[in-house]
Every structure is written in C-alpha cells, then in structure tokens.
C-alpha cells in the first residue's frame, strides 16, 4: 500500500511544522513542508496529497488577531481549492494556530445565514499566553482523527484559544451533529459533563474559558478537525510532564493516535 | 486622500478586560478618580477610500464579528466629548516598529484595497477622572515616552505626512586643530563615548593623513572601539593588587578564563570536545556524530531599564541572531532568561526619580521575552529571577540561546570578491547609538537623551530570516554570515571584512522610510537584519530563495582585498578607513584593580541556636520559601512556550501537579534521538557582597549541580560567564571583578568545565539628584551569571526532583559546614554575618562524577540540589512537589568534623539552613540502597530519612530529643507559591 502524503502548510511565523511533519512520518505518512507562497503559485500541487495540516505557530505574527491574516489569504485565494480537497474524501487537521486559521477562514464551519461566522477563537479569559497540560475528553464525535479515543492528556500553548460560538443555537447544533470533538475536563472525572454555554470546569482545567469547555471542533463530515491542544507534543512517552514518576513507559504518547488514525484512514 | 479612524471595542455582553485591569492598577497607584475607562484598539487608515470600503475593511480584516464591534469615522481635529469625559490616544512614535500596522497594510493591499498607510493606536475614554490623575496614569502605565506619544482629546492632524527624502550632505568634523576640551565636547555632542586619550589617538591618525575625518568615519571608530563591541576594559591591560601582591595582565580575560579553556583543550588532546570558543557569535562544542551545539548569553540591561518590553524583546531577538550567525548558521533550539529586579512590591514613593516601577519593569520584560521567543518558536526552558533593591535603576536582563548546527557548518570565512548581502528587516532610525549608549552610565535623564537607542522587535521578520538562512546554508549558498547587533552594519561588515577590506553602497540599503543620512544607515541598529558574504555565482540562487519566502535581500557592497573600509553614497565616497586602524588602533587602556579581603564578622551561632524553637525554625523555613528569589516563578514560566519543537524531555516545572521547581531542563533537539542537552544556571549576588571569589566558585558549583542533578555527564559541561558590574573605573570595583575572573579560571580547570563564551556589561550604576539636590549613585551588586550546558547520552535516564514513592530512603550527599554569609536564613532573619560558602574542588569533582554514575545506573528516583535555604528548603520542595511526606532526622546529617562537638542545637541549625555547596538530596528505593552507597563510597553521604505517605515534612533530632519542624505540604507550597502568583 502506498503511504499517504501529508502537506504541512507553512507561512511566515509557522513554527510547529517540523515536529508535525515528524509525527505524521512516525505514523507512516510521507510529509512535505510547503510554503504558502509556493502553494499560491502552483495550487495544483495540493492534488498530490491526501492530508493537509495547518501546524501551530504565529502565522504573520498573529497580527490583528491570531490566524486572521492567513485565514483571509486562504479565504481570498484558495477557498475553492480547499473545499474541493475536502470533498475528495481527504483529511484536514489544524492544530492551535491551524485551528485559528481553519475557523477564521470558514473551512471548518459554514457561516450563518446573516453572513456572520459561526464561531471564533478569542483571547484567553486571563488575557495571557499560557503553556499548560490539560485533560481532554472525547465523546464519540464524528471526527475520524479521534476514532477510539476516550481521553487525552496534551499541552496547550496559546493566548487566543477561547472558543466562542456566535449563539446558543450554534452550540446546540454542533452538539447535535457530533461536531464537538474534544472538551477540557477534570483529571479524574469518568463521565462526560453535560454541555452548556457556561464551562463546567474552571481554570486551570479549562485554561482559557472556552464556552462549553470546547477545545476541538470537527466539520460536518468528520474529515476536518481543528484543535487547540498540541498532539505532536505528546507522541513520545517522555513528552509526558511526569513520565519520571512512572516505572513503565507506554509505547507512544497520547497524541500519537491522532496521526495514526489519519494515516490509517487511507489504508 | 482621507484619513480614517477605525475603533474596535468588545461586543455587547463581552467584558472590556483591559479597562478592568486599568481600574485595578490605577487603584494600586493610588489614583482614585480613574474608574474603568472604555478602551479600544484602533487603526488610522489613509488612502482614497470611501466609507463603505473602510467599513468593509473594519468588518473583514480588523474586527472579530463574534466578540467585537467597530466604528468608522473620518479623523477630525474638532470632535466633541461628553461632559466629564477625557480621551487619550496612544500611538507609536514615528519610526518605531509597528508590526501590526505593517502586516495590516500588506494584507489590505493583497486583498486589493488601495491604501497608502496604516498606523495603530490605543484609545482610552475616562468618565469623571481628574485630568492630572489621567496624566499620571498615562505616564506610569499606558504610554512610554521613549517609544510612544500621547494625544489628549482629538488627533491634531488629518493627514499622515510621508517623510521627506534625504539630500546628500557630506560632513567633516574639525578635529585636526581641536584642543583637548574641544575633543571632549565632540565626543559628547556626537554621543561617541570616546575618552580623551582615544580622541587624541584619532586626531594623531588623521593628522598623519592630513585631512579631517568625516562624521561616518568617527562614528565607525566609536562603534568599533566601544566597550560593548571591544570589551576594552576586561580584555585590556590591568594591574591587579590583592593580598598576594601585584599581577600584570596584558589581556585579563585571555590570561584567566580563555587560558583555562585552552589548557583543558590541550590536556584533552584528541578527546577535545570544544569546537570554537571565544571567537564566534557563540561558543561551539561537539554534540553527536552529525551535530555540534552552540551557546550564547547576552545582556540587554540599558534598553530594558528605559523600555522594558522593547528592551527584552530585542534582547531575545539579538541573542537568537547570535545563534543564527554562529558558524555558517545554527538553528536555535532553546532559550534561557535570567532577570534581576528590585522588589515589585516597592512603594512608588521610594523610587529614585527617572526610574520605572520594578513591577512595570518586570511585567514588561517578561512580556517582551514571551512575545519574541514564542513567536520565533523557540522553547524557553530555563531561567531565574533575582531581587535586590540595588537593581532599581539598573535592572538586568540576560537572554541566552542554544543552537544546533551540522559539524561541517561550524566555521566561516568571507572571501575577497564575495558580495555583501543584507537580508531581513529594513533600516530605520532605530537604536542609533545603542552600542555607545550601553557603554555609558544611566542617569535620570537617560530616557530623554537616548530614546533613539530603544527599539521594538518584529519576531516574524526574524523567523522568516531564520527559515531562509537554514535553507541557504544547506544549499551552501554563502561563505560567511553574521548578525547586525550593536553598531548595525558598521560592526557586522567591519568584523566580517576585517581581514580583507570592503566597499559598501549605503544608498542601496532598503529603508523603512526616507530621510536617513548615510551615517544613520551605517550605524542604525534596526532589528532582524543579517549580513551574508555571498560568492557572486550564488547570488541569483540566494536572491531567489529569499524571494520565494518574501524575505527582502539586498546586495549592498563587495568584500575587496584593499585592507580598507570604503563607504559610498551614490557616487560619492563618504568615508574611507583602514581596517587596521579600526581594529588595532585603539590605545591600550591600563587600569588599576585592587582587592582587599573583607573582614568576616562571626555568625552568632550560639545565640541564634539558643533561640531556635520549633516555631521559629518553621517560621524561617516558610519565610525562605516566600522570599522572592526562592518563591515559585510559575506565573512567568507558563507564559513561555517551553515545549515547541517537541524536544522537551524534562520541563522547567516538574512533579505530580507540574508545578515543582525543576533543577534544569532537558531537551532532545534531534527528533527520534534521546541524546539530550541540559541547560541550567547559577548565580548568587548576595555571596558577592562578602567575597566575589567564593561567589563565583559557588555559582559555578550551583550551575554544575543543577545539571548533574537531572542526569548530565559532568565530564561534558560547557560554561558561560556574564559579568554585570558597577563602575570599573574604580580600582576596587574592577578588583572584585578580576578576583571573580580568577575564580572562573581556577574552577574551570579543577572541574574540567571549559568556558566557551562570555559577555560583560560594565558601569551598571544609576545616578540621580535626591530631594536635597545631592547627587546619589546606586551601583548594582557584583552580579555574575554562570550558565551551564550539559549533555545526557540517554534522556530516558534523566531525573526530576519530586519525591516518587512512600518507603524510599532519602540521602544527603555532601558535607555541611558552618557557612552563613549571604544565606537566605540570614536574609529573612536580618543577619549578614558568617563565612561565605566555599567550594572544595577535589571533593566536589568526585561527588559529581560518582553521583552521575549512580544516576546513570538508574539507582535514584529523585534528586534535588541544595541551594538557597539549604537542606530544609530542598527537602520541603521535594515533598510538596511529589505530594509525599518526609521523616528526617538531623542527627544523621554529616557536618564538617570540627562542628560535630558543638551542642546539638547548634549542629541542628547548621544542618537545616547553612548553604554549603556541592550537596544533593537523593531518593533511593530500598532495593537499590546498597548499590547506591557502594557507588558513592569515598564521598560524604548520609541516610537522613524516609519518604512517607503523610503529606507532612517532619524533621526531628534524637540527640536533642525534640521535633524541629512539622509542616504540612499544603502550607509549605502555599508559602512558596503565594508571593509571585499572577
């Protein structure tokens, strides 16, 4: 079987491209880092790839707002191309800044009837950048990246990661469509908490004040996923912040399964 | 042409967080009428634009339609305000980097909008505030005059004027006939920071040429000879007097610190693992079969004192460029940051005039480092913050960076005929005279004199440069590279062409705006620029590579084998200097340095011990945990991305809840390999108040201890020195520095830990007039930062400091002595007496080696070094980080032989809080105890207690028959976390 090809899209300020490429390669893919200028110059390039990843970083410095400029550039010049990509049964993953780009470009969620976006990612409640490990819960969303996942322990590292839907209706619809992919949770809670506008867990468990404790969103097909936590930062067992407390190490870190699921989707 | 004003505020139902913060901070400043202002972020947009177009821009580009709302108006000078309203606009001063405006302009143009210019601003609308209070708030909190302007009410303009073009005007300076007084005046007027002797040397040189110097020539000499660029004091002649007599140094650094490294390299022969030391932008050592690693730590003190955010921002930007300009270019893999501030809780009225509040400095510095490092994608993995009131006018900001580079890319050489190519940021008036400014003393007027020396960085420009630099390096497109740091093009090209000669076309340099003179272009310290030496045949490929990633590359000159530096603007030659005179013409400075030992006041052990009830001991422990130097820095650490690049194996915060104080971080820079780099530091200015020799050896011991405690191999630790001192024109101040350098030399030889790079920052003094009109000067304490870069062959053997499991044994490795001077026990109890901690090199080296063997055999579950606060503090930190208890018996702590006959109470006090060096606490499982003891045989090691499930630190003494400390983890941790919690 041929190995799926992964396009890691980078722009000025992208900075998690190397490790995201590495994670896909460990999972069995062939990853190539491509600059946005190159893709704008030869859009047909995208046709050779099965997976498109928007890695973390500060695209264009996150000037104006996180992910905004690259999102506009994509919306303006590559929207059709990317919608076609999506419709060809291919996968798109946006991590951190990638999630911010996906949500602000309209690739992840369709705009509302009045032209407003369905949701946004904005400043953390405490108004600062924060690097912290969080407990995530998955409850049978439609995302193919999260197949077989119940819990994840991953780090977040962002200033603008608070998920805000435009209305209560949007939130309920996302829930009904099983598009709420990951939610922040308490370390030892076994059951998933009821979904509401107000967060169920508070800082630091919900590190940014996201509505509904939401940390990742799937599109309506399950093939596009945007997430604030960084799965590529927990692919080795030694990435775990307290691995030295364990006497046995697992084979992989928690985040590895997302990359494996993505590759397996094509096999 | 219309100037539009777009303002963005939170949408209904969303809070104005900035407004609430201002309310809070205004109250802290004692301003009672401020309340919660309405804040807005804004853009001034100029172009032939209709209101619809600007509205579309505001909607699509500038605002977030879910959580924000906007307004669009034509800028007017006659807007009305409601009753009792005060409006303040804050804008970057013209010429100050405005990254958001630049990005916005580029994006709007790409989206098809025809816009001429964009600028950002912040707007504050106060209701019912008194004007004088609003003005105080603006000065103290909302705007910094060195980079920003404040506008009250309405904008005073309705159009943004472009700057006018420069008309060439070649300037000569009347030097040949100048008297001594006139030369001093010239040096001052042009901010050259040159001494009279230096001015006279220059005069003699130009007399021999029978012509006057041009302004650009004089500026170039001043940059090259500045303390910042040439380290003329420490690398100069020094006559040093101490208790052993007189020593004459021709080049002090070379004969002490460098000499030790050279001797070690010779001693190691073919096993020498140093690659390039003390000559490139950073020191380089071997790492694995393919790669070397580099390390450099820079200071950025003066700019950070005036504008903390920009100063720290460009400090980290600068050290990252050092890494990028090391060899043929290294890739930055992790950063370190160490700061020294005055107490952030200081009352505003106690501050000397002309200083910023330490809280504001701290907040600005941390954000500056955060915003640049995080954007560049470099994990910040190690750091420290020290507090002392003497840093009030001179905060210290140390920024360090480790890089990795292929072995064969470790050296560079510009070749005659190569093109001089500048890439990255454009040149503006930023940071003119930064190099000479950083070599001068700060005064309360510095902010008005030297505002031009302060800048703001743009990290993304530098990230783009890094991306193309690595690609060009791997394609072998250039023969040399260096960064533009202090002195700008002048230093970069001057250094690269030192052995060849160069011709530079100043009019070719891309400018941020028009109007710069040739001299300004030459000495501007605009950020994010690198200079390359590109063979002509590679220029097309180099240029194409830059273009492909939207990086500006410009061919600005040639390396020519003339031995001269020739500067041209258009066809006009504006300066010509011999490289020889520039680099070797500086008159040697001979300085006198003296050291006389300070008298030791005996520590009142008997008295203090007799009063040491359980209550007092517990209180001392809690107070040390709450002292600012020891207290948790989590609120700072979490603002830094410490995991980007995915190499993080041991993080700065460790333990069950990821909040314990790690000894050092471990990162594995080659993905898939477990070979790790260990970064740590050591510093203790309090010891320096007693003796800078022992301060230095203690700091070196501490840096190595931290490295070894996580698993680094002590046979492969490289060190860096950063000296920050007061006015070294005073012989006793310079003497204390020479004494520290001698300590570096001796410790490096004894430990076989070579220094590979270093930097100094002198004249860190702050002068002001007190209310009585008397001139007062505050000198910083002698501050030496030792940074250590260790290596670990297999990072899966690394260790953390948190206790792991009930029933394990706790060992104390190392001997405890009656050493108190500069200790934290002394600090919290107002005692400055006693002996300063010393290092026994022989025992220390053996301890490091044997402990490493034990760690390598996986015999330990946890290891923590003992530093500020000694045994009690280290034990408490291990306990609360692992959420496990400890039962300790002080009778078992090994004290130096002559102390063993002291009364039990005195022995116990020493055991708990003395700060002797080379000590570790080790957690060992019962089954490994015998092997552990055997491995450490020959060095002092004692079984001092057991890990328990109780969640309590319980310290007893059988010989005294009583409990000494019984404290719950929760209380210990709270004491440690509270002071600097955000």
Number of strands of chain B: 40
Instruction: Give the CATH architecture of chain A.
Output: 3-Layer(aba) Sandwich
CATH class of the domain at 801-982 in chain B: Alpha Beta
Shape of chain B: globular
Please name the CATH topology of the domain at 801-982 in chain B.
Answer: Phosphoribosyl-aminoimidazole Synthetase, Chain A, domain 2
Provide an overview of this structure.
The complex is a heterodimer of chains A (267) and B (982). Chain A has helices at 17-26, 36-41, 68-77, 79-87, 97-105, 168-176, 256-264, and strands at 5-10, 30-35, 51-54, 91-95, 119-122, 130-137, 151-158, 162-165, 180-185, 214-218, 224-227. Chain A has 267 residues and is α/β, with parallel strands linked by helices. Chain A has a single domain (5-264), classed as Class I glutamine amidotransferase (GATase) domain (Rossmann fold), CATH 3.40.50. Chain B has 31 helices and 40 strands. Chain B has a seven-stranded mixed beta sheet. In chain B, strands 35-37-34-38-36-39-40 form a seven-stranded mixed beta sheet, sandwiched between helices. In chain B, strands 3-1-2-5-4-6 form a six-stranded antiparallel beta sheet, with helices on one face. Chain B starts with a strand and ends in a 5-residue tail after the last helix. At the A-B interface, helix 1, helix 3, strand 5 and strand 6 of A face helix 1, helix 2, helix 3, helix 12 and helix 15 of B.
Entry summary:
The complex is a heterodimer of chains A (267) and B (982). Chain A has 267 residues and is of the alpha/beta class.
Structure characteristics:
heterodimer, A: 267 residues, alpha/beta, Rossmann fold, globular, B: 982 residues, Phosphoribosyl-aminoimidazole Synthetase, Chain A, domain 2, 31 helices, 25% strand
Topology:
The complex is a heterodimer of chains A (267) and B (982).
Chain A: E1 5-10, H1 17-26, E2 30-35, H2 36-41, E3 51-54, H3 68-77, H4 79-87, E4 91-95, H5 97-105, E5 119-122, E6 130-137, E7 151-158, E8 162-165, H6 168-176, E9 180-185, E10 214-218, E11 224-227, H7 256-264
Parallel strand pairs in A: 1-2, 1-3, 3-4, 4-11
Antiparallel strand pairs in A: 5-8, 6-7, 6-9, 9-10, 10-11
Helix pairs in contact in A: 3-5
Chain B: E1 2-10, H1 17-28, E2 38-47, H2 51-62, E3 68-74, E4 85-92, H3 99-110, E5 117-127, H4 131-142, E6 148-152, H5 180-189, H6 196-209, H7 215-225, H8 227-230, E7 237-242, E8 245-249, H9 252-268, E9 274-276, E10 283-286, E11 291-299, H10 301-306, H11 308-324, E12 331-341, H12 358-376, E13 380-387, E14 396-406, E15 419-424, H13 434-437, E16 442-443, H14 446-449, H15 459-474, E17 480-483, H16 488-496, E18 502-505, H17 518-523, E19 529-534, H18 539-548, E20 553-559, E21 564-569, E22 572-578, H19 579-584, E23 590-594, H20 605-610, H21 614-626, H22 634-637, E24 648-650, E25 653-654, E26 660-661, E27 665-667, E28 676-682, H23 685-688, H24 692-710, E29 718-724, H25 731-751, E30 755-761, E31 765-769, E32 775-779, E33 783-792, E34 809-813, H26 824-828, H27 841-856, E35 862-865, H28 870-882, E36 885-889, H29 904-913, E37 920-924, H30 929-935, E38 941-948, E39 952-957, E40 962-968, H31 969-977
Parallel strand pairs in B: 7-23, 12-13, 16-31, 18-21, 29-30, 36-39
Antiparallel strand pairs in B: 1-2, 1-3, 2-5, 4-5, 4-6, 7-8, 9-10, 10-11, 11-14, 12-14, 15-19, 15-20, 17-19, 18-20, 21-22, 24-27, 25-26, 27-28, 28-33, 29-33, 31-32, 34-37, 34-38, 35-37, 36-38, 39-40
Helix pairs in contact in B: 9-25, 11-12, 12-15, 21-31, 24-25, 24-27, 28-31
């Amino acid at each position: 079987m041929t190995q799926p090809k992964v396009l890691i899209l980078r722009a000025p300020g992208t900075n998690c491209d190397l490790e995201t490429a590495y994670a896909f390669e460990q999972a069995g893919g062939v990853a190539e880092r491509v600059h946005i200028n190159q893709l704008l110059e030869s859009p047909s390039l995208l046709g050779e790839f099965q997976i498109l990843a928007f890695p973390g970083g500060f695209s264009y410095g996150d000037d104006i707002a996180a992910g905004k400029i690259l999102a506009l550039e994509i919306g303006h010049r590559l929207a059709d191309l990317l919608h076609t990509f999506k419709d060809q049964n291919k996968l798109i993953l946006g991590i951190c800044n990638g999630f911010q780009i996906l949500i602000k470009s309209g690739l992840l969620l369709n705009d509302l009837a009045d032209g407003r976006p369905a949701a946004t990612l904005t400043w953390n409640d405490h108004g600062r950048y924060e690097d912290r490990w969080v407990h995530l819960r998955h409850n049978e969303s439609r995302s193919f990246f999260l197949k077989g996942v119940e819990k994840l322990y991953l780090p977040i590292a962002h200033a603008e990661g608070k998920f805000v839907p435009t209305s209560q209706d949007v939130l309920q619809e996302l829930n009904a469509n099983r598009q709420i992919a990951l939610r922040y949770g308490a370390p030892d809670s076994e059951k998933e908490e009821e979904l509401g506008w107000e967060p169920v867990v508070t800082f630091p468990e919900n590190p940014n004040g996201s509505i509904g404790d939401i940390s990742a969103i799937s599109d309506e097909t399950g093939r596009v996923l945007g997430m604030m936590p960084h799965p590529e930062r927990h692919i080795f067992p030694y990435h775990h912040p307290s691995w030295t407390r364990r006497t046995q190490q697992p084979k992989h870190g928690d985040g590895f399964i997302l990359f494996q699921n993505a590759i397996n989707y094509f096999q | 042409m219309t100037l539009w004003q777009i303002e963005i505020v939170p949408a209904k139902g969303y809070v104005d967080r900035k407004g609430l913060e201002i309310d809070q901070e205004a109250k802290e400043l004692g301003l009672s009428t401020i309340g919660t202002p309405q804040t807005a972020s804004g853009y001034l947009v100029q172009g032939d634009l209709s209101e619809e177009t600007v509205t579309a821009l505001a909607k699509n580009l500038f605002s977030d339609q879910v959580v924000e709302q906007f307004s669009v108006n034509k800028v007017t000078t006659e807007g009305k305000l409601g009753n009792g309203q005060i409006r303040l606009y804050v804008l970057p001063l013209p010429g100050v980097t405005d990254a958001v405006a630049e990005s916005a302009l580029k994006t709007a143009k790409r989206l098809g909008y025809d816009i001429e210019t964009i600028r950002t601003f912040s707007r504050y609308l106060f209701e019912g505030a008194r004007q004088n209070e609003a003005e105080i708030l603006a000065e103290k909190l909302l705007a910094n005059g060195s980079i920003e302007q404040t506008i009250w009410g309405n904008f005073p303009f309705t159009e943004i004027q472009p700057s006018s073009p420069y008309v060439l005007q070649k300037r000569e300076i009347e030097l040949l006939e100048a008297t001594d007084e006139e030369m001093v005046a010239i040096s001052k007027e042009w901010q050259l920071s040159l001494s009279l002797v230096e001015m006279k040397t220059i005069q003699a040189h130009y007399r021999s040429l029978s012509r006057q110097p041009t302004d650009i020539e004089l500026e170039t000499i001043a940059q090259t000879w500045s303390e910042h660029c040439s380290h003329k004091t420490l690398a100069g002649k020094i006559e040093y007097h101490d208790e052993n007599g007189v020593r004459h140094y021709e080049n002090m650094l070379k004969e002490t610190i460098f000499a030790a490294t050279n001797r070690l390299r010779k001693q190691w022969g073919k096993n020498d693992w140093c690659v390039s030391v003390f000559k490139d932008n950073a020191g380089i050592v071997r790492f694995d079969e393919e790669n070397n690693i580099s390390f450099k730590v820079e200071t950025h003190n003066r700019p950070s004192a005036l504008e903390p955010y920009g100063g720290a921002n460009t400090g980290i930007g600068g050290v990252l460029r050092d890494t990028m300009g090391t060899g043929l270019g290294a890739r930055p893999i992790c950063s370190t940051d160490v700061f020294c501030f005055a107490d952030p809780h200081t009352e505003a009225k106690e501050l000397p005039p002309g200083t910023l509040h330490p809280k504001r400095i701290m907040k600005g510095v941390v954000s500056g480092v955060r915003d640049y490092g995080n954007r560049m994608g470099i994990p910040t993995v190690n750091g420290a913050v020290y507090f002392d009131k003497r840093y009030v006018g001179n905060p210290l900001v140390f920024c360090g960076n480790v890089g990795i580079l292929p072995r064969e890319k470790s050296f560079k050489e510009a070749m005659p005929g190569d093109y001089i190519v500048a890439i990255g940021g454009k040149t503006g008036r930023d940071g003119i005279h930064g190099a000479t400014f950083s070599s001068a003393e700060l005064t309360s007027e510095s902010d008005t004199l030297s505002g031009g020396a302060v800048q703001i960085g743009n990290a993304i420009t530098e990230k783009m440069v890094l991306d193309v630099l690595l690609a060009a390096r791997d394609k072998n497109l250039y023969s040399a590279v260096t960064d533009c740091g202090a002195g700008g093009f002048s230093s970069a090209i001057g250094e690269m062409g030192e052995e060849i000669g160069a011709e530079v076309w100043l009019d070719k340099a891309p400018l941020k705006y028009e109007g710069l003179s040739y001299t300004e272009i030459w000495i501007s310290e605009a950020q994010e620029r690198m200079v390359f030496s590109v063979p002509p045949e590679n220029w097309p490929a180099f240029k194409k590579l830059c273009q492909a990633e939207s990086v500006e590359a410009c061919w600005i000159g040639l390396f020519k084998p003339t031995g001269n530096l020739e500067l041209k603007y258009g066809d006009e030659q504006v300066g010509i200097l011999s490289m020889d005179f520039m680099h070797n013409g500086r008159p040697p400075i001979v300085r006198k340095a003296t050291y006389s030992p300070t008298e030791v006041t005996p520590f009142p052990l008997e008295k203090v011990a007799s009063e040491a009830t359980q209550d007092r001991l517990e209180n001392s422990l809690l107070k040390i945990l709450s002292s600012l130097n020891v207290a948790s820095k989590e609120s700072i650490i979490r603002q830094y991305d410490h995991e980007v690049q995915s190499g993080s194996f041991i993080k700065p915060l460790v333990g069950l809840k990821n909040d314990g104080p790690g000894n050092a971080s471990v990162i594995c820079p080659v993905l898939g390999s477990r070979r790790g780099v260990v970064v740590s530091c050591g510093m203790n200015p309090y010891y320096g108040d007693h003796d800078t020799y022992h301060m230095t050896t203690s700091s070196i011991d501490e840096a190595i201890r931290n490295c070894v405690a996580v698993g680094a191999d002590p046979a492969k630790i490289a060190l860096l020195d950063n000296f920050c001192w007061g006015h070294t024109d005073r012989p006793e101040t310079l003497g204390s520095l020479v004494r520290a350098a001698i300590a570096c030399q001796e410790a490096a030889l004894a430990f076989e830990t070579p220094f590979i790079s270093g930097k100094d920052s002198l004249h860190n003094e702050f002068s002001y007039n007190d209310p009585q009109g008397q001139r007062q000067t505050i000198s910083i304490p002698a501050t030496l930062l030792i940074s250590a870069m260790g290596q670990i062959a297999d990072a899966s053997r690394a260790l953390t400091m948190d206790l792991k499991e009930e029933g394990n044994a706790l060992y104390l490795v190392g001997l405890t002595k009656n050493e108190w001077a500069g200790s934290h026990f002394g600090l919290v109890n107002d005692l400055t007496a006693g002996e300063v901690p010393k290092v026994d090199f022989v025992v220390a080296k053996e301890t490091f080696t044997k402990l490493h063997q034990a760690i390598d055999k996986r015999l330990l579950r946890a290891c923590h070094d003992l530093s500020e606060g000694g045994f009690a503090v280290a034990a408490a930190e291990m306990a609360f980080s692992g959420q496990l208890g400890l039962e300790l018996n002080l009778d078992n702590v090994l004290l130096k032989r002559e102390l063993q006959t002291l009364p039990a109470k005195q022995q116990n006090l020493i055991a708990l809080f003395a700060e002797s060096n080379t000590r570790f606490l080790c957690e060992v499982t019962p089954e490994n105890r015998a092997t552990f003891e055997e491995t450490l045989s020959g060095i002092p090691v004692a079984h001092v207690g057991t890990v328990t499930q109780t969640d309590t630190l319980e310290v007893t003494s059988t010989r005294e028959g009583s409990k000494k400390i019984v404290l719950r983890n929760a209380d210990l941790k709270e004491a440690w976390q509270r002071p600097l919690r955000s």
